[in-house]
């Protein structure tokens, strides 16, 4: 009988073994974390977002579009419940962003202060009351009667048609519910329930809000929809993500109507685990907020803005509108601070260890991964993972196929989850093969998903090298 190697000697032997020998032993091989791995700054589905295409080179993977409802819902007969649509403007937005490898986030509005009326003309012709106002410097827009029966019916029909058109569309990252209120932000302030200021109450009733949200819920089963107001509904509140459009100014606890206290009141503080959080950096602070870290400069007569890092970590935000950042000169300090915040947003995937035994020509290739999320939020779509093989000279050999890794279930702050992939490989006997991995973007030219690993992009751009292996004969 061959003597057994003492445990200590075995451990030392594995420690000093070549990568192929280590893998062949079936041991787990620890991977090195790299918080500045190539591509992390432009990871898809997360980060800061410009209005359309950016101009100054700051990295991004999503683009924002506002669209007037009147450009999309072009006619109808409320009595008959029939409507006509023209999707040209939405199609143009998706095509424009996709040409740059990006996805869109968008909002459709009926009333945008300072812009032309966006309520479909056929509804106005049917008698929908329209209200003039001078708030927010407005002189051109008008607010419809938000509780008009024909309007609610038309909005329900439009939401259904929109879902049929784009639910699961790979060029769309997230949809904000929009439609109702100023800027589609689900409020009519100052024309709200507090009439002590002498302003009328133009708010949509709770019943009508629930009708719209119910339609969004049924129309979108694949693409995530986000709502501005955490208190918009109790019936459907867990079905949506949320967005804070005054981020890092009216976000944190301390004032009851700030965003996160409203999330707390609604019992939604854990909703980020399954639904994305987004919003917009308060526009007035965008130009100066990256002069220091983590607090932006003060404004509004000395009223301090909130701690950006605390705001991101509290809300588990994944994306934020920040148009100024992408379309103005940005100095080195501002660039560095903004990029630091961008990396804080959303997910950060890290393969912490790999087990890759050497296969034979007749036995399948099997790999196990321990996968962590070191970000603040999940990866909200279960995009496929693809495994492929390079030879010792880093020349492409073949793809081994795709699988689902269950990305949305890899939560920040949780222990690493073990994911496995086994397949017939069809490789010839040889040494020094490399197994590589990527997350497959649904856009053929989409920005790659980068892992926070030292071997990200080491042997092939956009791919993570998992390890080296040999193929032997029996």
The count of domains is 2
Largest sheet: 7 strands, parallel
CATH class call of the largest domain: Alpha Beta
Discrete helix count:
11
- Kindly state the percentage of residues in helix: 10-25%
* Number of strand elements: 21
Which structural category do the helix and sheet elements fall into? alpha/beta
**3D shape:** elongated
CATH topology of the largest domain: TIM Barrel
| Distance between the ends | 23 Å
Could you tell me the mean pLDDT?
Answer: 93
Per CATH, the architecture of the largest domain is Alpha-Beta Barrel
List low-confidence stretches.
1-24
Beta-strand fraction estimate? 25-35%
Radius of gyration: 26 Å
Description of the molecule:
- With 474 residues, the chain is α/β, with parallel strands linked by helices.
- It folds into 2 domains: 7-38 and 348-471, Immunoglobulin-like; 42-344, TIM Barrel (Alpha-Beta Barrel), CATH 3.20.20.
- Helix content is 21%, strand content 26%.
- The chain has 11 helices and 21 strands.
- It has helices at 7-15, 19-24, 69-72, 88-98, 121-125, 149-166, 206-219, 259-265, 308-315, 323-326, 332-344, and strands spanning 29-30, 47-49, 62-68, 73-77, 82-85, 103-111, 130-132, 142-144, 172-176, 179-182, 224-227, 241-247, 277-281, 319-321, 349-355, 365-373, 384-390, 396-404, 417-423, 430-439, 464-471.
- The strands form 6 sheets. Strands 3, 6, 9, 10, 11, 12 and 13 form a 7-stranded parallel beta sheet that branches. A 4-stranded antiparallel beta sheet has the order 1-15-16-19, with no helix packed on it. Strands 18-17-20-21 form a 4-stranded antiparallel beta sheet.
- α6 (149-166) runs parallel beside α7.
- The chain starts with 6 loop residues before the first helix and ends with a strand.
- Residues 1-24 have low confidence and may be disordered.
């Amino acid at each position: 009988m061959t003597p057994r190697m003492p445990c200590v000697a075995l451990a030392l032997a594995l420690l000093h073994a070549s990568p192929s020998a280590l893998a062949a032993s079936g041991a787990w091989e620890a991977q090195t974390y790299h918080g500045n791995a190539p591509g992390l700054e432009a990871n898809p589905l997360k980060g800061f977002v410009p209005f359309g295409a950016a101009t100054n080179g700051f990295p991004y993977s999503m683009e924002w579009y506002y669209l007037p409802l009147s450009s999309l819902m072009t006619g109808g007969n409320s009595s008959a419940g029939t409507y006509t649509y023209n999707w040209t403007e939405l199609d143009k937005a998706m095509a424009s962003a996709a040409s740059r490898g990006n996805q869109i986030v968008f909002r459709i509005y009926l009333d945008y202060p300072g812009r032309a009326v966006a309520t479909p003309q056929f509804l106005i012709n049917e008698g929908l009351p329209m209200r003039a106002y001078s708030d927010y410097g407005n002189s051109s827009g008008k607010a419809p009667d938000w509780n008009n029966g024909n309007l609610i019916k038309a909005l329900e029909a439009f939401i259904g048609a929109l879902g049929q058109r784009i639910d699961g569309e790979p060029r769309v990252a997230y949809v904000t519910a929009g439609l109702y209120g100023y800027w589609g932000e689900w409020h009519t302030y100052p024309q709200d329930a507090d009439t002590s200021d002498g302003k009328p109450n133009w708010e949509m009733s709770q019943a009508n809000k629930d009708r719209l949200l119910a339609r969004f819920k049924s129309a979108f089963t694949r693409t995530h929809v986000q709502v501005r107001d955490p208190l918009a509904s109790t019936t459907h509140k867990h079905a949506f993500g949320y967005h804070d459009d005054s981020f890092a100014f009216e976000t944190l606890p301390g004032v009851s109507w700030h965003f996160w206290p409203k999330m707390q009141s609604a019992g939604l503080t854990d909703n980020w685990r399954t639904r994305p959080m987004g919003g917009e950096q308060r526009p007035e602070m965008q130009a100066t907020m990256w002069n220091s870290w983590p607090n932006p400069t003060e404004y509004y007569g000395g009223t301090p803005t909130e701690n950006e890092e605390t705001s991101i970590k509290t809300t588990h935000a994944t994306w934020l509108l920040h148009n100024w950042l992408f379309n103005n000169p940005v100095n080195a300090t501002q660039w560095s601070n903004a990029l630091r915040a961008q990396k804080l947003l959303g997910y950060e995937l890290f393969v912490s260890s790999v087990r890759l035994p050497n296969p034979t020509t007749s036995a399948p290739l099997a790999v196990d991964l321990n996968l962590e999320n070191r970000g603040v939020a999940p990866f909200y779509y279960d995009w496929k993972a693809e495994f492929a093989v390079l030879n010792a000279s880093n020349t492409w050999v073949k793809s081994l196929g795709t699988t689902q890794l269950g990305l949305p279930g890899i939560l920040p702050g949780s222990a690493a989850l073990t994911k496995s992939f086994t397949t017939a490989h069809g490789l010839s006997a040889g040494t020094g093969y490399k197994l590589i991995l990527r997350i497959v973007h649904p856009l053929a030219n989409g920005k790659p998903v980068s892992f926070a690993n030292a071997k990200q992009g080491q042997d092939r751009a956009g791919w993570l090298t998992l390890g080296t292996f040999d193929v032997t004969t029996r």
